[in-house]
Amino acid sequence: MRSDDIVNVMYRENFPRFSQSACAQRFFNSEKAMQGNKIRGQIAFAELRSATSSVGSRRKKLLDDHVKNTSRFLAKEAKSRKTT
Q: What is the largest CA-CA distance in the chain?
């Protein structure tokens, strides 16, 4: 799932509370923090998830899936850097 798709879901489900740019800013700030060390990433994800979890589990699943895929990608990237 692309980051833009997650932002759009967050926007649709939180329309009365957040503008689309606010949803995008919140998501990308959290995503940037998740690229740091593991503990900072877990904290950033927990904050993002709790901030967007009031409507339902569909969005949580989108976020969970996105973070799993991002984590796998970052782990592969870090591993390839160590081997080179």
A: 49
pLDDT digits (tens, 9 = 90+) for 16-40: 555 556 656 666 666 665 566 666 6
Where in 1-84 does DSSP place strands (E)?
Answer: none
What is the SS3 string spanning 20-33? HHHHHHHHHHHHHH
User: pTM value?
Assistant: 0.29
> CB-side exposure of 30: number of CA atoms within 13 Å?
24
Distance, CA of 31 to CA of 41 (rounded, Å): 8
Tokens in use for 7? 């932002």
